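Rather than argue in generalities, we reproduce a single protein record, letters for residues, whole numbers for local backbone shapes, just as it appears below:
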Amino acid sequence: MKVLYAAIDQSVPDAHGGSVHVTSVAEGLAARGHEVHVLATPGPRPFPPGRVTWYAVRPPIGIRQLRFLRASQVGHLADAIRPDVVIERYYNFGGEGILAARRIGAVPVLEVNAPITDHPGSRKQLLDALLLVQPMRRWRDWQCRTAALIVTPSTKILPADVPREKILQVEWGADTERFHPAASGPVPFARAASDTVVIFVGAFRVWHGAIHLIEAIRRLRQRGRLDITAVLVGDGPELPAVRKAAAGLDGVTFTGALAHDQVPACLAAADVGVAPFDLAAHPPLAREFYWSPLKIFEYMAAGLPVVTPRIERLAHVVRDGREGLLYDPTDPAALAAALERLADARVRVPLGTAARARAVQQFSWQHHCEMLDLAIQAARGACAS
């Protein structure tokens, strides 16, 4: 099967989750014997070597909202490649991949990682209403109707009238061969053998909640717990505020942004993975926690118990008391209490072992691509009949 994967608003390779996702899906499908061609924005380093063929296609002047202006270029590449399947990574101002698939007779697949439907009061919804004929709603509805298959971690972020039989609901994943408890490599932080090291990896958006980890560490210091230390990996708009909140706290390390291939060793050198998401800080999340969070799958693959808020979607991934601990995000002391419980290796180690086992069985990119491959084959069969 020949696959064209249109994800031109994502830079590859890069440290963010979208880049990891696109690379992992492309390489996973190629590993299953398919010929995979990917359209993406070049990242700070060359495209990954291997069986995938990469094409440098950027949104005009780097503005994602202008992505559809590349429709002609995408169409010409589709004509040259003649894929059997076109996968498009959905974006509000996209659709060029689905359009090309329809024109050349390829099977159109829409990969949905964020809400297609708008949360009440969103700027896009208001703009669409002002335009009276709601062109953006009509365009997204056309994409959903045209797609033979929609791949998403949550059906709640799709229009209600999308037929269930054309949806593949599947979580994203982790590279369980690279992320494992014995991963080695340089680690940009030091630790004492007696410490319990909790780690946060993220892009420091306000809804990632990194500042809540700092607040928990401060609370633990007030309780005299000096043995629980924190490492925060990444960069982003909230990093200055988080650094300021950590001023004067011992045992807090900021590594800055790291290449994704450096992260497995960092996780293997830690004891607990923390994902303190803050739903109140991002209005779309009030409707549905639509992410399939890569950091949690990678923590689990590394054999770390996970600490995260008690949210329905996350409780499906991390079962409280089985692969980690869920805490009440409305209780200011709850995160610190969860970390303190996991300072006991008798509690922590069995949870981490179970987290690793579940990641391998259910949350690997290998599993994701197997499910995707089967669903695409079924969609091809349905389109041919």
In short: Residues 365-384 form the longest helix (20 residues). DSSP finds 14 helices and 13 strands in the chain. The radius of gyration is 21 Å.
